[in-house]
Design a protein that fits this description.
Chain lengths: 380, 402
C-alpha cells in the first residue's frame, strides 16, 4: 500500500526520459507543483472537472497532486468543498496516492485539525479521519466523543457506534439513556432500526416512521387509467390544474400506520393493475429554502412540490428502498403541498403486486425537516 | 544521445506492455473473450480452508464481481460504507496476496442493490495496459496497472435516469481499443463504447428500456471485424465496435441473466432452454433448440463439441453443441449464481454456499471433487497459472497450483 514511492520514481523517470505515451504528459514543465499555492490551485481545478473530455490532462494533473509532499495534503483537501461528482474522484485519486507515499509522515495534528473543523467539507473530514485512524487509531477514536451531532454523516455514524459500544456493559438505565441519545443522533436507517429495536426490546416502543420523518397523512385520489403505461406521461386533472386541487376528483384521507410510512394504494383504493393515483399532503417546514424530497416505491412515480415538478422515474418493480430516489426542491416556510403520482403497471408476477410509496423531506444527511399537524411522540 | 535514450525508452515501454499483454491470462468476466473455457491448465483437485490455499485476502467491502488476473496482479472490485457508496479497485500481488494498490472512489449514481447482488457486481476488464471497472451506480473508471486513474465516466450523471436498483450486473469489455458497457435498465438504457485510452465517446447505441444483467460478448466476424453481442430480454444485437452499427439482430424471448456464449461461429442463447443461432444469417432460425439444456442464473459454457448448463435445480447438463442432444447430466447441490468455467477437461462450478465442484467431462459427467470454503460465493471463479481464484462476498481466496 505504501510502496508507491520507488515505483513512482521509476515511472516518472521513464516518462520524462521517453517523452512519449500518455505518461509522458508529465514533463519537467508540469511536474510536481513547486509550492503549496500551486498545489492547491491544481487541486481546485481538478475538483471542478466536469466534462468527460480532456481526461488525459486531468490524469496528468492528478499525477502532480500525487507527487506533493505530506504537508501539502491537508491544504489540498479543502478543494473538495466545491467538487463536482467527477472532480471529487479526480482529486481523491491524486491525494490518496500522495497519502500512500507519505506514510507516517502525514501529520496527525494536521489531520486532527481537519476532522475537527466543521467548516471543511464532509468528504475532506471523513477522508482525514480515515487516514488518522490508519495511523493513530486511539487519537481518531477520541475525536468521536463530540461528534454525535456532526454534519458529516459517516463521522456521525461512527460516533453513534462508539457510544453504543461503550455502553454495552453498563446497567440498563445507562444503556437506555445512551440509546435514546443515539436514536436522536443517528441518520442512517439501519442504525436507527437497530437502536429502535433495542429500545423496544427493553420496554420503550419507538415510532420509527416518526423518527425517520415520513409524511404519513395524505389525501389519495381515485384511480386513473395506466393501461400499457399510458398514464405516466398523461396529465390527469390533479396535475393538469396544478397548483390548485380539482374538486371534480374524489379524494380520500389516508394515514399510514406502516413502520416505514408506506401508503398502500391497493388498500386505500383497490387492488388493481394498470392504474395510477395521486396523493397530496400538506407539510409544514420550519424555514424556507432547499431540501431533499426522498421517495421510495416499487412503482413509477413523479413528485411535485408546491405545483413544481421535482422528479419523475418511470421504473416498475425493480427494487424498492427507503430514499430510493432523491431530488432537491425549494420549500417555503410554513405549509407546503407535496403531490405524488404513483403508477402501477400490468405485470402479473407475484412480486409485482405492490402499489405503494413512502416519502420524507430531509436535509442532505437525512434529518427529517417536515412535520404534519397532530404528530405523536417518538417514544411511547 | 537523446535519440538513443528515447529509442531505449521506447523499447522498454514496448517490452513492458508486451509482457503485460501476454501475462493477462484471465482478463475479464469468464476469462479471455468471455468464453469461460480458454484455459488448459492443471489445477489442484482438493482444497479447503486448511489445505491447498496459497493465500486469502480480506476485501475492503462486498461484491459479486469476479477477480481478474493481469500480469502479476489479481484485481478485484468492491463497495463499502453504510450506503455502499465507496467504490474500490484493489490490486493484489498474485504471488503473495499482498495489496499492491488500492483505489477508492465515491459513487455518483444510486447504490441500491438487492442483497443477492451488489454495487460491485460487474467484473472489471483489462487489455493488459489498463483496467476498466463498472459499478451498479453506473460509474465507469479506468486505471492503469499502477492504480493511476486514467479517466472516469459518471454515467448516471450523464444519463440521470439510468440505473438498476436490483443491481446492475453487467461487466465491461475492452474490444479493439474500445471499452464497451451495456446499461440495460428501465430508464435511460444504452450501450456505450469509449476510447479505452482516453474515455472519450466512440459510439452510443440506444437500448430497449428493460433491465437485463447480461454483458457484452466480443465476437469477431470476417465481414465486420471486431463486434460485440448485446443481449436483452427480447433479442440479440451484434454491433460493430468501430462505429456501433448494428450488423445483425435476432428476436426472441431471452433470459435476462445468463449470457449467450459462442462456439464454432454459432451463438448459444439462453432462451427457454438453449437456442443455437448463426450470426451470419438474417432472421436466423435456430439450428437447434433444447429445453433439456436449461440455464438458471449461471451462463452456459461451450467448448469443443460440447455445451454445459446448470439449471435452477442445480443439475449440470452437458449436450452436443452441434445438435443440442443431451449427453449426460450430474446433480450438484446448492444454488448457482457463478457461471461454470472449464480448464482442461474439468468444469469448475462454484455454488453460492461455498462448495466448488470439479466435474470431469470425459465421458459421462462425474463429480471428481467437492471443495468447501466459508462464505457466500456468487462470483464466477478465475483461473491463471494453475491457480483458481474464488471470491466470496468479502474475501478472495487463491487455491494454490498443484
Amino acid at each position: 500500500m505504501r510502496q508507491e514511492a520507488p515505483r513512482a520514481a521509476v515511472w516518472f523517470g521513464l516518462a520524462l526520459v521517453a517523452g512519449m505515451s500518455a505518461h509522458a504528459t508529465v514533463s519537467a514543465a508540469d511536474g510536481p507543483p513547486q509550492n503549496v499555492a500551486e498545489a492547491v490551485a491544481i487541486a481546485t481545478d481538478l475538483a471542478r472537472a466536469a466534462e468527460p473530455r480532456g481526461q488525459t490532462a486531468l490524469a496528468a494533473q492528478a499525477d502532480r497532486i500525487a507527487a506533493i509532499p505530506a504537508d501539502w495534503i491537508v491544504p489540498c483537501l479543502a478543494a473538495l468543498a466545491d467538487a463536482t461528482p467527477a472532480g471529487g474522484n479526480w482529486l481523491r485519486s491524486g491525494i490518496e496516492r500522495a497519502v500512500d507515499r507519505a506514510g507516517d509522515s502525514l501529520s496527525a495534528d494536521a489531520l486532527t485539525a481537519v476532522v475537527a473543523d466543521r467548516k471543511q467539507s464532509a468528504r475532506a473530514r471523513t477522508l482525514a479521519f480515515g487516514w488518522l485512524k490508519d495511523r493513530n487509531p486511539s487519537r481518531a477514536d477520541g475525536l468521536l466523543n463530540g461528534m454525535l451531532d456532526d454534519p458529516a454523516l459517516d463521522l456521525r455514524r461512527e460516533a453513534v457506534e462508539k457510544q453504543l459500544t461503550a455502553v454495552a456493559t453498563a446497567d440498563e438505565t445507562a444503556q437506555k439513556a445512551t440509546h435514546r441519545q443515539c436514536l436522536a443522533a443517528a441518520r442512517d436507517i439501519d442504525q436507527i432500526e437497530r437502536i429502535a429495536a433495542w429500545l423496544s426490546e427493553h420496554g420503550e416502543k419507538v415510532n420509527v416512521a416518526l423518527v425517520l420523518g415520513f409524511v404519513r397523512n395524505w389525501r389519495v385520489s381515485e384511480a386513473f387509467d395506466n393501461a400499457k403505461g399510458v398514464g405516466f406521461a398523461k396529465a390527469y386533472p390533479p396535475e393538469a390544474v396544478l397548483p390548485t386541487r380539482p374538486e371534480t376528483v374524489q379524494w380520500k384521507a389516508v394515514a399510514s400506520a406502516d413502520k416505514h410510512g408506506a401508503i398502500d394504494l391497493n388498500a386505500a383504493i383497490e387492488t388493481k393493475k394498470g392504474v395510477l393515483a395521486y396523493a397530496v399532503a400538506d407539510v409544514v417546514m420550519p424555514s424556507g429554502g432547499p431540501a431533499e424530497v426522498r421517495i421510495g416505491s416499487p412503482c413509477a412515480v413523479a413528485v411535485w412540490v408546491n405545483g413544481k415538478p421535482a422528479m419523475a422515474h418511470e421504473i416498475y418493480h425493480a427494487s424498492e428502498a427507503i430514499d430510493q430516489y432523491v431530488a432537491p426542491a425549494e420549500f417555503r416556510e410554513g405549509t407546503n403541498t407535496v403531490m405524488v403520482k404513483c403508477c402501477q403497471n400490468e405485470q402479473t408476477e407475484s412480486w409485482a403486486g405492490d402499489w405503494k410509496f413512502q416519502l420524507r423531506i430531509c436535509d442532505s444527511i437525512g434529518s427529517p425537516l417536515a412535520t404534519q399537524p397532530a404528530q405523536e411522540k417518538v417514544a411511547e | 544521445m537523446i535519440m538513443t535514450t528515447r529509442r531505449l525508452s521506447m523499447m522498454l515501454i514496448v517490452m513492458l506492455w508486451s509482457v503485460m499483454a501476454t501475462a493477462a491470462d484471465w482478463p475479464e468476466f469468464l476469462g479471455p473473450r468471455g468464453r469461460g473455457a480458454a484455459t488448459d491448465q492443471a489445477i489442484r483437485t482438493r482444497w479447503s480452508e486448511a489445505e491447498g490455499i496459497a493465500w486469502k485476502a480480506e476485501l475492503p467491502g462486498r461484491g459479486a464481481s469476479s477477480p481478474i488476473v493481469v500480469g502479476d496482479l489479481v484485481v478485484v472490485t468492491a463497495s463499502s460504507g453504510a450506503r455502499q457508496d465507496q467504490l474500490h479497485i484493489l490490486a493484489i500481488d498474485k504471488a503473495s496476496g499482498r495489496t499492491v494498490w488500492h483505489r477508492r472512489f465515491w459513487a455518483t449514481g444510486r447504490t441500491i442493490a438487492h442483497p443477492t447482488s451488489a454495487v460491485a457486481a460487474g467484473t472489471p476488464a483489462s487489455d493488459g495496459k489498463r483496467i476498466v471497472a463498472l459499478y451498479s451506480s453506473c460509474d465507469l473508471f479506468a486505471v492503469d496497472l499502477e492504480g493511476r486513474l486514467l479517466w472516469q465516466r459518471n454515467l448516471a450523471v450523464e444519463h440521470p435516469r439510468s440505473g438498476n436498483d436490483i443491481g446492475m450486473g453487467s461487466s465491461p469489455r475492452i474490444v479493439d481499443g474500445t471499452a464497451v458497457v451495456q446499461i440495460d435498465c428501465q430508464g435511460d438504457a444504452f450501450a456505450l463504447g469509449v476510447d479505452a485510452a482516453t474515455g472519450e465517446d466512440r459510439c452510443i447505441v440506444p437500448r430497449e428500456k428493460l433491465a437485463s444483467w447480461s454483458s457484452p460478448l466480443p465476437v469477431t466476424t470476417p465481414e465486420h471485424g471486431a463486434c460485440v453481442l448485446l443481449q436483452g430480454p427480447h433479442g440479440l444485437d451484434l454491433h460493430r465496435v468501430a462505429d456501433g452499427k448494428t450488423v445483425w439482430s435476432w428476436k426472441g424471448d431471452i433470459s435476462a441473466i445468463p449470457m449467450t456464449t459462442e462456439s464454432g461461429s454459432m451463438l448459444h442463447v439462453p432462451a427457454d432452454g438453449i437456442a443455437s443461432v448463426s450470426p451470419k444469417e438474417a432472421d436466423a432460425k435456430p439450428a437447434w433448440k433444447s429445453t433439456k439444456l436449461s440455464c438458471g442464473i449461471a451462463s452456459p459454457l461451450a467448448w469443443g463439441d460440447s455445451i454445459a448448463c446448470i439449471n435452477r435445480a442445480g443439475v449440470l447438463c452437458i449436450g452436443d453443441v452441434a445438435d443440442g442432444r443431451l449427453r449426460g447430466q450430474v446433480r450438484l447441490a446448492g444454488s448457482f449464481w457463478a457461471s461454470p468455467i472449464l480448464t482442461g477437461a474439468t468444469i469448475i462450478a462454484a455454488n453460492k454456499e461455498g462448495k466448488t465442484f470439479l466435474i470431469s467431462t470425459d465421458g459421462e459427467p462425474k463429480i471428481i471433487a467437492e471443495n468447501e470454503l466459508p462464505g457466500t460465493f456468487t462470483a464466477t471463479p478465475a483461473v491463471a497459472d494453475g491457480s483458481v481464484y474464488l471470491r466470496s462476498e468479502t474475501a478472495l481466496w487463491k487455491v494454490a497450483a498443484p
